């Protein structure tokens, strides 16, 4: 019995939607599924936050600059596209925390700020002796008896005290989430630390035991990857590869309605499309508006998103004297700076910068400190340059500056996030059974997390539309 052709629509053309479309197309070809695939993106370009500017021999990332290699799905996507030979590793080097006027090395053996080697922690200038003694309380404190979720701040402050959290753990984790540690969910962000505490009691000892050891003589290898010509390489390759996918760019989905067995999508052009299955990869605010009349995602009404900006600055080599050998620094909230971090991009990613030049990238904006993102480009550039000059000797003005704003772009997984996501998905399965959610608002912000979600929803939707149809036919 031949299977009826199914119409699949993916809404959102960021990395989640592109991954879903690519693997949907791949499954259709390999398994002979009769599919008509459409991808709708409201902006004139694909890729979402992945944006690479190639200028005067520089490679400037406006959004993310890399992905974590140990999360294999993004590298696998590159391999599936045939572009894995273009991947490059980050150069390794010391990273720092800026506290007061001084750049302090992140203690050796730290895993997201958790010390696994005692000597570097004890000798670090990041903490007072009282702060170090308080952190040692982790060795004797019992494991938590909290049932359910808790904030990262509460969890880490209980184990190590305020000083270690504010001068080391918070700057590192804020660099990932741009969030408030005292609101972010432990279970939705770093559930592995809760597991370590429950199994080993001491977070220090447990992390030391569970962190893979590298051979002592082996050269330290970078844990991040990007493409020689910038991250947008993967977006360009995906767009070229989607030959069986109808792409709508500059078109916005405005409404979803159940019409019989299908879902009807109303576009901003006034036209409509019919779908047997939909994958929504838009930010949660956009998704909520699409599903509003169905009473779905009301729990996400108050889910915050943080606004951030990045400022890339190019210089001639003789204009800049960086006093430290390393790849960059994060900034403690206890310090009087507007920037939250700085990457010495020419050192971390040598392929981005022409010989004889320097490329630095400053970051501004985080939960509770977002007003700076609304300043003009010139004002943001001045703020960042003034902050950088406190730690780095910089002569003259940059050759060029690239300011990129990301308004409400960093979804905040506040306490209870996982439960909210599961309730919304259950509600969706009841009211719009072949509509799926995926993307950075739900189960991971990183690029591999988004690829994983796109693949997972592709698999789930195809199983529902085809495998169950085969069972019913039998």
Automatic annotation (TrEMBL):
<keyword id="KW-0963">Cytoplasm</keyword>
<dbReference type="InterPro" id="IPR004572">
    <property type="entry name" value="Protoporphyrinogen_oxidase"/>
</dbReference>
<dbReference type="GO" id="GO:0006783">
    <property type="term" value="P:heme biosynthetic process"/>
</dbReference>
<dbReference type="Pfam" id="PF01593">
    <property type="entry name" value="Amino_oxidase"/>
</dbReference>
<feature type="domain" description="Amine oxidase">
    <location>
        <begin position="15"/>
        <end position="460"/>
    </location>
</feature>
<dbReference type="GO" id="GO:0004729">
    <property type="term" value="F:oxygen-dependent protoporphyrinogen oxidase activity"/>
</dbReference>
<dbReference type="InterPro" id="IPR002937">
    <property type="entry name" value="Amino_oxidase"/>
</dbReference>
<keyword id="KW-0285">Flavoprotein</keyword>
<keyword id="KW-1133">Transmembrane helix</keyword>
<protein>
    <recommendedName>
        <fullName>Coproporphyrinogen III oxidase</fullName>
        <ecNumber>1.3.3.15</ecNumber>
    </recommendedName>
</protein>
<dbReference type="InterPro" id="IPR036188">
    <property type="entry name" value="FAD/NAD-bd_sf"/>
</dbReference>
<keyword id="KW-0274">FAD</keyword>
<comment type="function">
    <text>Involved in coproporphyrin-dependent heme b biosynthesis. Catalyzes the oxidation of coproporphyrinogen III to coproporphyrin III.</text>
</comment>
<keyword id="KW-0560">Oxidoreductase</keyword>
<keyword id="KW-0472">Membrane</keyword>
<keyword id="KW-0350">Heme biosynthesis</keyword>
<comment type="similarity">
    <text>Belongs to the protoporphyrinogen/coproporphyrinogen oxidase family. Coproporphyrinogen III oxidase subfamily.</text>
</comment>
<dbReference type="GO" id="GO:0005737">
    <property type="term" value="C:cytoplasm"/>
</dbReference>
<keyword id="KW-0812">Transmembrane</keyword>
<feature type="transmembrane region" description="Helical">
    <location>
        <begin position="7"/>
        <end position="24"/>
    </location>
</feature>
<dbReference type="InterPro" id="IPR050464">
    <property type="entry name" value="Zeta_carotene_desat/Oxidored"/>
</dbReference>
<comment type="pathway">
    <text>Porphyrin-containing compound metabolism; protoheme biosynthesis.</text>
</comment>
């Amino acid at each position: 019995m031949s299977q009826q052709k199914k119409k699949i629509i993916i809404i959102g053309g960021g990395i989640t939607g592109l991954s879903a479309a690519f693997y949907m197309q791949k499954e259709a070809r390999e398994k002979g599924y009769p599919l008509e695939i459409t991808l709708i993106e409201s902006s004139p370009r694909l890729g979402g936050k992945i944006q690479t500017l190639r200028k005067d021999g520089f490679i400037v990332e406006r959004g993310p600059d890399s992905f974590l290699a140990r999360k294999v799905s993004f590298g696998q996507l590159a391999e599936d596209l045939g572009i894995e030979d273009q991947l490059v590793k980050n150069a390794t080097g010391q990273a720092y925390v800026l506290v007061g006027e001084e750049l302090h090395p992140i203690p050796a053996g730290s895993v997201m700020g958790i010390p696994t080697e005692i000597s570097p922690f004890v000798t670090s200038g990041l903490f007072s002796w009282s702060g170090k003694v308080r952190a040692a309380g982790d060795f004797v404190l019992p494991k938590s008896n909290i049932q359910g979720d808790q904030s990262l701040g509460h969890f880490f402050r209980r184990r190590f005290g305020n000083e270690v959290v504010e001068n080391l753990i918070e700057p590192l984790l804020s660099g990932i989430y741009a969030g408030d540690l005292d609101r972010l969910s432990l279970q939705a962000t770093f559930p592995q630390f809760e597991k370590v505490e429950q199994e080993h009691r001491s977070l220090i000892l447990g992390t030391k035991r569970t962190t893979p050891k590298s051979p002592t003589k082996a050269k330290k290898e970078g844990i991040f990857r990007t493409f020689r010509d910038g991250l947008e390489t993967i977006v360009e390759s995906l767009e070229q590869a989607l030959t069986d996918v109808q792409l709508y760019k500059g078109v916005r989905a405005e409404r979803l309605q159940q019409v019989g067995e299908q879902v009807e999508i109303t576009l901003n052009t006034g036209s409509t499309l019919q779908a047997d299955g939909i994958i929504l990869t838009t930010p949660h605010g956009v998704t909520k508006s699409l599903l509003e009349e169905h009473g779905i995602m009301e729990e996400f009404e108050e889910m915050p998103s943080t606004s951030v900006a990045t400022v890339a600055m190019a210089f001639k080599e003789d204009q800049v004297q960086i006093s430290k050998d390393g790849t960059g620094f994060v900034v403690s909230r206890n310090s009087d700076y507007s920037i939250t971090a700085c990457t010495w991009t020419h050192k971390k990613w040598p392929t981005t910068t022409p010989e004889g030049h320097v490329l630095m990238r400053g970051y501004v904006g985080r939960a509770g400190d977002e007003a700076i993102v609304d300043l003009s480009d010139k004002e943001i550039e001045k703020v960042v340059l003034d902050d950088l000059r406190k730690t780095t000797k910089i002569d003259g003005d940059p050759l060029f500056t690239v300011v990129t704003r990301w308004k409400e772009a960093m979804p905040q997984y506040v306490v209870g996030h996982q439960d909210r996501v599961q309730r919304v998905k259950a509600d969706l399965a009841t009211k719009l059974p072949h509509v799926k959610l995926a993307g950075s608002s739900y189960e991971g912000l990183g690029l591999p997390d988004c690829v994983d979600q796109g693949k997972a929803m592709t698999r789930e939707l195809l199983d529902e539309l085809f495998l169950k149809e085969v069972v019913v036919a039998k």
